[in-house]
Structure formats: structure tokens, C-alpha cells
Amino acid sequence: MLEKAPLTVHAVILVSFDHALGPTVEWTYPPSISEGEAISEHINRNLPFLALPDGAHLQTEDYSYFHLFLPHLSTTSTVFGISSHQPWGGCDPVDSTEGLVLANRPVFGCIRDKLGVVTRALFAQRDFTDRSILVDFYHSLEASFELGLGEGGGEVRVQSAVVASVDSAPFNQDSSPNEPSQSSDTEAAKREEEARAEALRRRKGKEKERSGEAAIYMGTNLRELIHQFRLKTLQLVKLLMLQRRIMFYGHPVESLCTYQYSLVSLLPCLLVNLEDSGSPMLAERAQHMSRPSSLQTSDHHSLLRYFGLPLDIFGQDSFFQPYLPLQQIDMLKAATFLVGTTNTIFQQQRDCHIDALANIEVATLEVKDPKLAAMVALTPADRKWMDELIAAVDSSWNPEDPSRPIGNKFVGSDDYLRKEFENYVCSALSAIKFADYCERNKGTGVMLGNSDSAAASIAAFNDQFIQKFKATCAFQLWDQHTDSVIFDLIDPRHPCEGRVSVVEDVGIRLTHGFKDLKLDETLSKGSESVWRLATNLKTDLTKRQAEYRQSLSSANSAVSGKSSETDQPQRGTPSPSPDNGNNSATNSSKAPDNGLPGQPSVRASLATTFSTFLFGSGTPAPAKSSRPTSVTSGSLQNLPPAPSTDPPSPINTFFRYS
Known about the structure:
Blueprint: E1 9-18, E2 22-29, H1 37-51, E3 62-68, E4 79-87, E5 94-103, H2 108-124, H3 132-149, H4 154-172, H5 179-206, H6 209-217, H7 222-229, H8 232-241, E6 245-249, H9 253-265, H10 284-287, H11 300-306, E7 318-321, E8 336-341, H12 345-348, E9 356-359, E10 364-367, H13 370-375, H14 380-395, H15 414-440, H16 451-460, H17 463-469, H18 473-480, H19 502-517, H20 519-570, H21 578-590, H22 602-615, H23 633-638, H24 650-657
Parallel strand pairs: 6-8, 6-9, 7-8
Antiparallel strand pairs: 1-2, 1-5, 3-4, 4-5, 9-10
Domain UDENN: 10-496
Family: Belongs to the AVL9 family.
Region (Disordered): 169-211, 548-658
């Protein structure tokens, strides 16, 4: 296996943006990194555009993570960069300036806060010609790396100095004149110290998680990834295992990059082995892989190494770029990739063959090919397993600090989620090995298990997904360098196999289906407008009801006054003539018995009642006028036109205006 170089910082660089020249490298430290025309051209080709992403001026402060392949710095490994962007509010033609750091490991979590402080201090002094603060920043990073911030030879370097002082001690002491015995004692001391140094080198592998890996994982946020993408998180992991072309889109750039690093960290040991991710041409890890010959079950790293992890996801003709500018669009011709972008042009280009698009702003996952969507579809066991993880995250969710669970409990933390995904991936690999073993020994009598149980375990992970995964280069390389009975170490079955019923699965699908619709957020945004519209409708209808009732009351009062004036001269008449009696009887038969000629019809009354039931009554109903005792034909002829035999209702009036 290829031995890793100590964690080092390559350079601190200052990038400025000018409207006439665009982004350019203004200053580098140490200066030797940009000496030479070829080296300078290689750095200026893509580095300024990676450090200054599209739309950076829209943010007051933002960070960008990116990968580079710089042969003059490292011919066999990726260079990892982080930049801090600050807009310049002055009238200078230089609108913005960025400070960036290049290192040989993605220790962005450790560098980010320090880089932000240094960048803000550089802007506060308002003098970009004074770069002493950047020089001090470079030396402080270099010193912290040597003291053991990351994995590498930090501890060994310190012990080497101790060895030198011990070696010189025998020559400074008073010794006997017997030179052979003195030299033998010196050689014995040397051998003893060499043995101690070798023991320290071995111990360095065990301390890897506490130093290097802990520093690398510091820049991820698994809780937020699962809280946003929920069940789709496992689909993204399956797409990554299938080595598909995945693109993340959204703003801001720091969140865009963090989501991708969090996704990569869900595959065991992959985040700390990204040496080949900077370019499709890099494939060093595959050339130096070998089958492990020893296993120490008490050492977690030894167990994972014996299990053949990490998978070689970003190997030959594959790359990973957290932020991809337009200047690197040609890299999308690779067979597989994981990239992030803030530009929609990539989605519109036909040459950019994207298999899946993840939008971090709305937390959606779009799989272009229906066949691929069926391969990464979740099984009932998958949904049950993810539902438990989502419940652990949601129950301990703290909006003020999404990265930490409430009470700092282990359940629901990033370490807990990483451990669960490690168990899932290892169980899937173990189930594949067990199924292949059962298939090879079928009918031979040499069986360690039931072939039916192996088939059930494969089905729990999705048959189509397993078959497609076995055809990938990552699996074939892993299968060649692992033991055939590796399933003895990890149970070859799904973590939730046989633990979910049909009814429970339907409930999980409905629950997360409604959650993905985000109805609460959608309704909350439009609830104010809907409530305002309903209030205006109610006010308008109430006003029209009041106007209608007032006009009806005025008409009834006018009719009552006319009827009273007509009745007074008729009271002196002793007896009506037969003709008048007949006319009166005829007119009385035409008029309704219990209603006024101006009284609203049944349809209008129903409409008014319905409107009052829905929107209430804005004003109390006026008192009805008493009906005259008798109405003659003459009075009917002299009456003014009735207000309306079929008056318009408020509902009809409203919809007419609508």
C-alpha cells in the first residue's frame, strides 16, 4: 500500500478581481511556488476561477473548496484548496480579494476559521501591500501541522530529535578505556532506540483517527445533510457507489461544498483517501493495492483495511470537484464524477451527461434515467433503516446549532451517523461475498449457510442495485483484493432485514412523502395572502349586504307611506261597488297572502342566508314594516315600481364583479 506523505501546507495565495483583467493571482508565499513560466501559467489557468466562484459578490463572506492537480507540487496526488472571499467596499477598481490555502489533505475544518480571521484582518488594515499577516499565517499553519494536527510524521520528527540526543550521550560520558565494549553499548542503545521509533511508527496508524481523520471530518455536517435530503440521502450514497455522474447545484458555495464532502464521508474511509480525486488521470491507489495479510480485530482501522476499504470510487477516469467553474467544463467528459456548481449552464449543455442532479436549495434529487432510478430505489428495509436515522436526527435537532445534537448525545451525532452508514456499506459488501460463495459451492455439499437467506439479503439491498454495483470498476478492484470468506467478520444481511411490515412501510412512505412536499413551509408562505384575500372578500360581501338591506328597508317604508295615504279617503265609502269588489278580490288573489309586493324572492333569500352563514352579518337586520290592512286596486295602480321582484343577491353581485 502506498505510504502517505506527512500533512503539509503548500502555499498561501492572494487572488484579486479586476473588471478589466478578471481574477488573477496577485501574490504567493513561499514565492518559489510560482517561479518559472510553466509553473506560473499552470497556476493562473484555473486557480483564480476556483478561488472566486460565480456570484461571490452576492455574499458578504463565503468559502470555496476545490481540488487541483499540480504536477510541479505533486505528481501522484491531489492538491486541496480552500479560499475565503471578502468583497471590497471601496471605490478601487479591485472589487474583491481572496486569500486561499493549498494543502495536501482536505483539512478544511481546521483551516477555515483561521483563514476567515486572517482575511478579515487583511481587509481591516486597508493596505493590501502589507502581507506580513499572510506570511505569519503560513508559518503558524506549518507549525500546527508539524505538532500533530494531522496525520503524518509529526510525532516521528519529534522523536527523531530525541534519538539524536540519546545517541550522543555515551560519547559525552566518562567511559572505560575498553573501546569495544563502549561501541557495543552504543550499538545496543541504537538498536533499542530504533525499535522504539518503529513502535512509534506503528502506533501512528492507531492514532490516525484522533489526529488526521478527526481534523478532516471536522469540515463535514452529516446531520444537516440527512435533515434536508432525508430518504434521498441513501439514494445519493447508492449513486456514488455505482460511480455515476452526480452534480450538486445551489448557493452559497460553502454549503454546496460541505454537502458533497458530507456525502463522501458516508462511505467508510473515502474522505481520508482522496489522493486520486483531483484529475481523471490519477489512479495511484489502484496500482499499489494489495490484499492484507494480517488482521488485528481489536484495531478498528486494521479491520477496515482488511475489509478492503475504502472503495476506489474516484479512480481511473473519475474525479471529484466540490466547485466546478466554467473553465473546467471539459472535465465533464469523464466516465464518472461528483461536482458542484452555481451555474445553470451546465444543466443546459448537451455534452454534460449528468445522471443525477441534487438541488441543495430545495433538497430535491432528480435522476435522469428511469432505469437508474429503479436501481437506486429504496427497499422497505432501506426505508425502515433511514427512518430510524432521520428520527434520531429530528429528535435532537437544534436550529441554532444544526451540527450538534441537543445535549451533545452520541445518538444522532455525526459520529453515530457515520458509524451506521459504515455498518450498512460493510453489510452490503459482506452480503455480496456470501451470495457469491453460496453460488460457487451450490451442490458441492460445502455450505456455510442457506442460499435462500443470501438471496433474501441481496433483495433487501435491491437486486438491481447489487447487480449494477458488481459491474463497476470499484467493486471489481475491491473483489480482487479481499478474502472470499470475509463475510465471517460482518453479518451478511441488511441491518433492518425482516424488521418491517407492509403496513409500517406504507406509513413510512406516506410520512416522508408528505414531508418532502413541504406543505407546512408552502402554506406558511401563502397563508398571509390567503387570509388577507378572505378578509377582503368578507368585508366586501358584508358591505353589499348592508347596502342591499338599507335599500330594501327604504323601499318598504315608501310603500307603507303610500298605502296609508290611499286608505284614508276610502274609509268614508259606505260600501264598495260590485266592480270594485271584484277588482279587489282579483287583485287580492294575485298578491301573496303573507308577503309584500317588494319582498325578495325565495332564491334571493336563500342566497342571502347562504352568504350570512359563510361570512356573517355585518349589520343587524332592520325591523320589517307592518303590512297595511287592505290594498285596493287603485292603490296598486298608483304604487311605484317594486324595488325588485328578483333582487340581486350579494353572492351574485360579488361574482359579477369578479
